[in-house]
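MODEL INPUT / OUTPUT PAIR
PAIR INDEX: 1
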Amino acid sequence: MMHEIGTWVAIGAAAVGYLFFLWGGRRFTDHRFSSFLTTLLGALASYGAYVWTGSLWWAPLPFIFFLQHRFLGAAAALASHAVLVLVIALFIQIDDPTGAMTFFVVSWLYGLPLGAIRLVESVSQYFKVSLLAGLIFLGGYFLGHLISSADAAASLVWGLLYAGGQTLIFLVGFSLYFLYEMSVGKASPLKLMELGDMNHPLLQRLRQEAPGTFQHSLNVATLAQEAAEAIDANGRLAYVGALFHDVGKLKQPEYFIENFMGRENPHHALSPEESARIIIAHVPEGVRLAKKHGLPSWIIDFIRTHHGTSRVEYFYRQFFENTGQTNDEQFRYPGPRPHTTEQAILMLADSIEAASRSRAEWTDEEIRRLVSNIFHQKLAEDQLEDAPLSFAQLKELQKVMTHRLQAILHKRKTDPPSSQHPVQQSPATTSQ
């Protein structure tokens, strides 16, 4: 009877987890809640494995699930966890309800505190997390044996041995995990650190051949990182994506406003259609350069999506005034629209920073209106439709970006004078 109840409970938990995965792909934005579900499924799986094999070495499964959650994301982690629990549930045989509850609670307590750990970004942090895992395992092992009325001294000795083994396992596991992430193109912390190095050949070219675009990318990266961290998104990922988002401008940097440097506007000699074609081409050209330099797919996604399917508004207006035609297909970026939180943040940060260059002087109130206009514009054009952002998060992003842009513009006042935008445009539509 207990066997059947335990099996169905585990299967039910797996089904609920899978439903959360299907429903949560666009809605899991609170890492605490998803960490809670992740470690709960991990505790169920660890108990099933313990009963099946009789080994306490399965107790760290919640921690391993936590790692998957933190590095792969909530939806992918919950999906894999649900399947694993479902498989293990077939082998559960509960003969001792008290022992089952003890193991379940201790195992869950082992994994849950680790949900508070933010994304590790250095080798020293890996060692600290591994040590913390060992200490938590020691505490959980010792507590479990005391509850079972085992000998305290023996429990402590065995707990130390197990904790040391677990620490070593996690150190090896981290290395293997990051190798796996890099092999499948995931944005591992090690890869983020590597690509965030300003000595990368593409960033060096951008600095030398398109210094205005390079400075714009740095400003956008700072803006995006601070905004992402404010809503508990991956700030480092947003920062690195922003560094590379405009590398396609290397092909014809002189046609982009930030690189005019006092020179005559070359678009004066072109038709609106030709100008739009050059401006839009920096997206596919950026993709080509990224592939040529072996950049991972998630960087290429930032390049593809940072303008979504928006319109090069200024040149479209010129075209409409000259011809009266309303067909805007040749004035739109190819897309796709942003489909992750970090990509959406980059789109907003890029548009805001670019629009801020349309004038030399801004008051704080004008900056607030500028940011608000761009947020409303992107929403009205459905450019954020595919991104998992709530209205509360958008409100927080707007506040943070306003404050950061004010700081950037105040600093810009002390920088050497630069050329202004060749034509007066609406602040909400200057992004190119």
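PAIR INDEX: 2
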Amino acid sequence: MTGGLVEPTRRVSRGWIARFALAWIGLYAGLFGPLQILLPQQVEALAPEAKEAALALVLAAGAACSLVANPLFGALSDRTRSRWGRRRPWIAIGFAGGATAIALLSAAPTIALVVLGWCGVQTLLNAPFAALSAAVPDQVPAAQRGTAAGYLGLAFVMGVGCGAGLAVLGGATTAGYLLCAGFALVSCLPYLLGGRSDQVPAAEPWRWGVFLRGFWIDPVRHPDFGWGWLTRFLINLGNAVVLLYLFFFLSDVVGVADPAAGVLVLTAVYSVAVLASVVVVGVLSDRVGRRRVFVSAGGVLMAAAAVLIAVWATWAGALVAAVVLGVGFGTYSSVDFALLTQLLPSARDRGKDLGVLNVASSLPQVLAPAIAAPIVTGLGGYTALYLVAAGIEVTGALLVYRIRSVR
């Protein structure tokens, strides 16, 4: 028992995993449909002469909001006491608010309002992001978390694919946004309405000082947590740099006539590759009792995909890179989350601590534009950009071995 909470020992059912995965699919569709296709289209229509800088501004502002919102909502869910548990109220509020924000974003007539709308989407959808993340250590025993993380990786792929598909299916940008919003809202209902609630510990007196100080987790006292954070940060930073300008790379370098359709095709290829690895590797990790080797291998494969794009800037090269990136991301994501849930300092603060770890995923979205924009516009172009991304990912893949408490 840690912090008044018992570590889960009862295996979750297939039904729970299905409902959990569906909620994540909707969440990712709501985020990545705009991120991959709709925001670039909208920004290009509003600011065609400065589309790279404008898109970088929009994405960086949204990621900055995510940076704050994820640990904040995680900490608030830790302290929530209700008949529906700690997490479900924030899942419901976040999906409802996020879908509304996506719908409003669809009508934004200026770059300034696009920035504001995307900040709203990122802020509100990080409430269910934080709460759903905490549901894994709340309810899934450690020996089953590789499998759960594998299905979480599968949900990511399906969510990204659904988001891209809905964005293209809508035809017009506005319709694409509305389809993503509606799908996100519907997808969370089975999880909210079914299954068991998480444990709710006794309420504690609210103290602002304790609440704010809790966001700092001392890497000296908790070194494995610190190394886990840094590993996730570097691998996600490299991946964010690779994906940031994919739409423009296909249009301006590869010469794809319809870059939106190109993104959709690459997403489909990538998704098939992820599907071939994500659940299998998660289950294998549980069976062999090892996490680090899979995280490292996934990071190296993702770096290899970046190198392929750098040296083979053709449509065929992009397709091969999508396969390698998919296998690498499937291998990495199927185990990374399971590994990190085993490094949490306190069971009582799982939501907040995972929120701090999720900063390692959102902070790269803030930093990637600052790194990528000057490289693309004057410091070597796309070739240099993708080689830099590969170096970052390899560094993260190697540093995972500094973690000692998990094999």
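PAIR 2 NOTE: The radius of gyration is 20 Å.
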